[in-house]
């Protein structure tokens, strides 16, 4: 859905708060925060029409630092809060932020069922493979056999593949960013906000305090040198620079299946080469709001947020009998 440009002249600083930020020095969270602020500013999203929901974890503090509406919710529960807000007011631009433990551990049920609905939201996962806020335990994205400095023994769980999980759950925009490449991440976030449907961005976000393996230097390949040039060989590369096409143009003729295979293949690349960029975009599938509109024809004109909930005398004006009668008529 297109966003109307606000008449008010806003600057980037208008999207920042002066709340003290106590993330560790060098944390990848800073780059994600900056990317979110810049994306909102460059799209000129009116601040009263933007809201950020977070779960629990270091990332959970993000809404405190962005000068739009912000709700710091419960561990793993940010998605259902956000879905409720968006469905009540389909004019809101809703962003959800959370860590990999929050979204893919305790919140994984909501992660999957949100994909089935395809509500128009943007979900950003800060992926550092550890639970930073609680001293670096292994999170669902830490690979099998890895031993970060915070673990006494190597990890004996296998890792979740966030990109593949988002795809099979039904997310219609799937991307990966890198927190130290703010310009690139900001562009991905802008496209995700403008996407019609549920967007997911997996952000590789080094935690310099507890994850001493997937560090900034590791992502930039400083531990290996190109024998020809004598320079480090970065692990991260951009999909768009290799001619990758994420868009689904047609739901028939086997195109969707081909795109799914392409996404799964790319999602498995890790180690020597790690792709970032947009993996998948499908605007052919209806959003949840459109599905509601098919049942309640005036949903967009008269969403819950515009409806009166009480009479002038302050009494509830909910008429359950009338509501049930309406539902049975509409649903046949
Ligand atoms: Fe960032 Fe890790 Fe510190 Fe949390 S513990 S603020 S993720 S560096």
Automatic annotation (TrEMBL):
Question: Which InterPro entries does the record match to this protein?
Answer: 2-oxoacid:Fd_oxidored_beta (IPR053399), 2-oxoacid:Fd_oxidoreductase (IPR051457), OFOB (IPR011896), PFO_beta_C (IPR032686), THDP-binding (IPR029061), TPP_enzyme_TPP-bd (IPR011766)
Q: Which residues form the Thiamine pyrophosphate enzyme TPP-binding domain?
A: 56-203
Any single GO molecular-function term of the entry would be:
metal ion binding
State the source organism's domain of life: Bacteria
Could you list this entry's UniProt keywords, alphabetically sorted.
Iron, Iron-sulfur, Magnesium, Metal-binding, Oxidoreductase, Thiamine pyrophosphate
> Which Pfam family is one of those matched by this entry?
TPP_enzyme_C
Which GO biological process categories is it annotated with? cellular respiration; small molecule metabolic process
Q: Which PANTHER family did the record assign?
A: 2-OXOGLUTARATE OXIDOREDUCTASE SUBUNIT KORB-RELATED, PYRUVATE FERREDOXIN_FLAVODOXIN OXIDOREDUCTASE, BETA SUBUNIT
Identification of the protein by name: 2-oxoglutarate ferredoxin oxidoreductase subunit beta
């Amino acid at each position: 859905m297109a966003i109307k440009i606000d008449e008010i002249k806003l600057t980037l600083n208008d999207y920042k708060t002066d709340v003290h930020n106590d993330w560790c020095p060098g944390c990848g969270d800073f780059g994600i925060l900056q990317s979110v602020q810049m994306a909102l500013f460059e799209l000129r999203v009116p601040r009263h029409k933007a809201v950020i929901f977070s779960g629990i974890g270091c990332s959970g503090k993000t809404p405190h630092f962005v000068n739009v509406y912000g709700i710091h919710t419960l561990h793993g529960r940010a998605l259902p809060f956000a879905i409720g807000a968006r469905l009540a007011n389909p004019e809101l631009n809703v962003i959800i932020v959370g860590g990999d433990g929050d979204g893919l551990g305790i919140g994984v049920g909501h992660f999957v069922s949100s994909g089935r609905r395809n509500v128009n939201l943007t979900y950003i996962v800060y992926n550092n493979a550890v639970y930073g806020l609680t001293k670096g335990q292994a999170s669902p994205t830490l690979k099998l056999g890895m031993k970060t400095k915070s673990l006494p023994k190597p990890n004996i769980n296998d890792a979740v593949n966030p990109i593949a999980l988002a795809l099979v759950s039904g997310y219609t925009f799937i991307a990966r960013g890198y927190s130290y490449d703010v310009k690139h991440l900001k562009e991905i976030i802008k496209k995700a906000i403008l996407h019609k449907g549920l967007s997911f961005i997996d952000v590789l976000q080094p935690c310099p305090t507890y994850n001493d393996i997937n560090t900034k230097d590791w992502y930039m390949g400083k531990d290996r040198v190109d024998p020809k040039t004598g320079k480090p060989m970065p692990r991260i590369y951009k999909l768009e620079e290799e001619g990758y096409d994420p868009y689904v143009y047609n739901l028939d003729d086997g195109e969707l299946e081909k795109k799914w295979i392409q996404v799964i293949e790319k999602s498995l690349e890790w180690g020597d080469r790690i792709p970032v960029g947009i993996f998948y975009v499908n605007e052919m599938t209806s959003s949840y709001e459109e599905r509601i509109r098919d049942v309640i024809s005036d949903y967009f004109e008269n969403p819950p947020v515009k409806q009166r909930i009480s009479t002038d005398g302050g009494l509830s004006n909910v008429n359950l009998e009338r509501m049930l009668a309406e539902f049975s008529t509409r649903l046949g």
